User: What shape does this take?
Amino acid sequence: GAGGGAAEGTEGGAAGDDMEDEAHKVQLEAMRREFFQHQSSADSAAAALEGDLKAARSACEALAPELEFWRGKAQQLMAARGLSQADAEVAAASAAAAAQTRSSSSGGRREEGRRRRGEAAGAAAGAGPRGP
Assistant: This one.
């Protein structure tokens, strides 16, 4: 009697352990699937961001030579009009405007800077040799 009861209890415990192991395996498999789904979506997001970065870099690279071209043209025009002494002032104002634009996080400040630069460029373009 007593020995048989102990053996039955052990068999019941082993069956319970097997059920717990099976439940644990199912849970681990579900966690693995979830992890792989998250990893796949993160990889997709990273690939999309990399594409955006490449596009932004290529757009920036295209603008740099154009900026230098127009900057040179503006300096030539200023020199032709006798305004070469204003180069240092223009460079300082341009650097200050660029720094303000970088540090500004609101669109209103950027728009104000663009407006000011546009007014300054208009004034410089309108200035010319005076007199007869």
Residues 108 and 123 are 22 Å apart (CA to CA). The helical segments are 2-80, 87-103, 107-126. The two ends are 130 Å apart (CA to CA).
